[in-house]
From TrEMBL:
Domain Deacetylase PdaC: 52-143
Highest taxon, organism lineage: Bacteria
Protein known as: Deacetylase PdaC domain-containing protein
Organism: Novosphingobium aromaticivorans (strain ATCC 700278 / DSM 12444 / CCUG 56034 / CIP 105152 / NBRC 16084 / F199)
One family name in Pfam for this protein: PdaC
PROSITE patterns: PROKAR_LIPOPROTEIN
Family matches, as InterPro entries: PdaC
Gene3D superfamilies recorded: Fervidobacterium nodosum Rt17-B1 like
Length: 268
């Protein structure tokens, strides 16, 4: 069962279109009867993996884009994660159905869905994010965010916050613009609701570095914006859904970046 919430993650993605092809003059038709030169073998393009299983016990969906499949180590990591998620879902669903039968109540198929999408594809980095949807027989499905930041040079996965001197430093650098935008989105969802209006547990700002942090780029060369993906219950009740806040890389953010990654970021 896929969650119905759509992901506006393209706000962080670099959207550069290829240049228009230039017109060229056609050469005169050749009259030689010499045999044509052999053509190099055509490489099979790397395709994304997309698994879908739907039966009486569970619904399982897992996919990742070609950009991730083109990196052997990352493809292996995702394939292993896929198999583990499927095995865990099967075991959980089997237990759930057995419990339902033992207690004589209806069983509703469990579900797990992951759809990795490209946030930013840079020469040295590939930034991915996903909405993980799951249902385990409760009152409603739920979901959470996840991210992968692949370091092409080191050939390994990194957590976005690991590029900063500390979580606290990152939080301090983006907290003011994050909280301002979060409150704006809260007021919009709550139809003009102002702080102090009756939802005290969801009035305070939250720590952005404790949420799912993703790195984005508008120029295709360096990270110049930071996304903070907030799942339900973290900043508001379930009915409000998720929150997605984007803040620019600023001088304060650059000051919080580890020295070895300074060249990976640029202030806007």
């Amino acid at each position: 069962m896929r969650p119905t919430t759509l992901l506006p993650l393209a706000l962080l993605a670099a959207c550069s279109a290829p240049d228009d092809p230039k017109a060229t003059r056609s050469a005169p038709e050749a009259t030689s009867t010499a045999p044509e030169a052999p053509q190099p073998p055509t490489q099979t393009p790397v395709t994304a993996r997309d698994v879908h299983e739907d039966n009486d016990l569970y619904v399982f969906d897992y996919s990742y884009p070609a950009a991730a499949g083109a990196i052997p180590a990352l493809k292996d990591l995702l394939d292993k994660e896929l198999e583990k998620a499927r095995a865990d879902l099967k075991a959980e669903a089997a237990n759930g159905r057995a419990e339902a039968k033992a207690n004589d109540f209806p069983y509703h198929p469990h579900s797990h869905s992951v759809e990795w999408k490209v946030v930013t594809d840079l020469p040295a980095w590939l930034s991915l994010s996903t909405l993980v949807g799951f249902y385990s027989g409760g009152a409603h499905p739920n979901y959470a965010y996840d991210t992968i930041l692949w370091d092409r040079i080191a050939g390994k996965r990194r957590a976005p916050v690991d590029l900063f001197t500390s979580k606290a430093a990152l939080s301090a650098a983006i907290r003011a613009p994050f909280c301002k935008e979060l409150d704006r989105q809260r007021a919009k969802k709550r139809e003009g609701y102002e702080p102090g209006g009756g939802i005290p547990e969801f009035e305070e700002c939250i720590d952005p570095a404790e949420q799912t942090v993703i790195l984005g780029s508008s120029n295709g060369k360096a990270f110049d914006r930071i996304g903070v993906l907030v799942a339900p219950y973290a900043a508001g009740p379930y009915a409000e859904g998720d929150y997605e806040v984007t803040v620019p890389v600023s001088a304060k953010v650059l000051a919080a970046v580890k020295p070895e990654f300074k060249g990976t970021f640029v202030a806007r």
